[in-house]
């Protein structure tokens, strides 16, 4: 299989066991490489489904690391359950080489799109870092859907000051509405673990 993928310029790394895979995973996740993980259902120390569940419990994004199950021991119910739980696809052996290659390429494209999106979110995060402390306070309250007069009361400032800070926040973050701002902050929290978003709770 390694040879098959490398003949179409898709470098592949195999792991003899779960621990060797686990020890290198963060290195791969932190790289700029597009990724796809092929798992067999039956493996020496952990089943493919166990590894898959471990990935999900550990917080790894299945958009960053799409998972394809490839096995000679599958069944329809297992396939449906795996895909329903976030697997990219499920193939029973034997499958045609070309079909698998094309699906892996699609998974790699998904991983690449995640990286692009992540870079955009990082840029937004950097913009938030440039907000003043007061602008940040206003940002959180606006994202919660609070009216200017309510924000003014909570922060003990004038409504005109709130309007100025609100306009600055929208301008610096390039958003046009409170709903768009709330969506942005939610995505930052989900993808970047943006700790400043505690104010939204």
Automatic annotation (TrEMBL):
* HTH luxR-type domain mapped to chain residues: 124-189
CDD domains per the record? LuxR_C_like
Entries under Pfam families matching the protein: GerE, Response_reg
What top-level branch of life does the organism fall under? Answer: Bacteria
The cross-references to SMART domains, in alphabetical order and at most eight, read: HTH_LUXR (SM00421), REC (SM00448)
Q: Using the record's annotation, list all stretches that form the Response regulatory domain.
A: 1-108
Q: Does the keyword DNA-binding apply?
A: yes
- Name listed for the protein in its UniProt record: Response regulator transcription factor
Species this protein is from: Limnobacter profundi
């Amino acid at each position: 299989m390694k040879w098959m993928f490398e003949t179409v310029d898709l470098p592949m790394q195999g792991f003899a066991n779960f621990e060797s895979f686990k020890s290198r995973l963060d290195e791969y996740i932190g790289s700029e490489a597009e990724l796809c993980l092929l798992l067999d259902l039956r493996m020496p120390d952990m089943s493919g489904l166990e590894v898959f569940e471990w990935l999900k419990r550990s917080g790894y994004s299945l958009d960053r690391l799409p998972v394809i199950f490839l096995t000679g021991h599958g069944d329809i119910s297992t396939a449906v359950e795996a895909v329903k739980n976030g697997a990219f696809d499920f193939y029973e052996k034997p499958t045609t080489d070309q079909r698998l290659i094309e699906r892996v390429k699609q998974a790699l494209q998904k991983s690449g799109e995640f990286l692009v999106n992540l870079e955009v979110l990082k840029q937004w995060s950097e913009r938030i870092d440039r907000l003043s402390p007061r602008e940040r306070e206003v940002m959180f309250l606006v994202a919660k859907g609070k009216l200017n007069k309510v924000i003014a009361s909570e922060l003990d400032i004038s409504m005109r000051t709130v309007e100025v800070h609100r306009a600055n926040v929208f301008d610096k973050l390039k958003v046009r509405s409170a709903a768009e701002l709330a969506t942005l902050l939610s995505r930052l929290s989900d993808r970047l673990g943006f700790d400043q978003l505690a104010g939204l709770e």
